[in-house]
Write the structure tokens for this entry.
Amino acid sequence: MDLTRYFARIGLTAAPAMDREGLATLQSAHRRAIGFENLAIPLGDGIRIDSTSVFEKLVVQGRGGYCFEQNRLLSDALSALGLVNRPLLARVMLGLPEHAAPPRTHTLVLVNMEGAAWIADAGFGGSFVPPLPLEDGAQAQTPDGAWHRLLRSGERGSLAGEWRLERAGPASATDGRSAPHGEWQPQYVFDLGEVAQDDLEMGNHWTSTRPDTRFTTLCIASVVLENGFAAMTDRQLSIYRNGVSEMREVTDAADYARTLREVMGIALTDAEAARLPLFT
């Protein structure tokens, strides 16, 4: 981990204090600078989640990535800053029935800070998830106007997870999978079981290769904005900022690559965009 290059990539001039405000500052800067994307899958490049490969792609090359990449980078940065942390695995519940048990295809970070446990997540593409203390009922509001909370959801080993993250806020400040109302909606459930690197590798392999899933059939990108959220699914771009929503369709590969660079902070060339299934 080269913290100097990482800070330059996320727009910080110095390391924030490693307290609750500093963690929020670091994660917010990361989410606003490094877009969420799955484009290595439709491009046929494959996704590697070791520290060296992730740093090269997200920091050096200026690309984005999905949870297994984003939270690998965040975890490495937190470790370099002196915070003990480890990965967790979660089941994403967006748009699913209450008792569904999808695979554990999301990863987040459990952080030990100031003698307490926190969750940090720089890799959830559906919306902006702020750092939260691992406490039943813990809540936080994000600049897009949404509220987020953690609830104890079950016993250890339960398919429903020990913990559930919920969100209440404008559906326009998401990637479109949230229901159009402001009531609490589950985002994902997780437990505190130890996660090995091979567990992450298995989740990444399933997510990037399983036929007929969101990540293997669509081109996805999103990013946190200063007071909102931007998401692009295939050619449909939605931007929510300061309570105002706008949508448009991307016209061609050059427009797609330009939108990624200017809105999402993702460095994709026109030639690479032209290789996407959207334009072939």
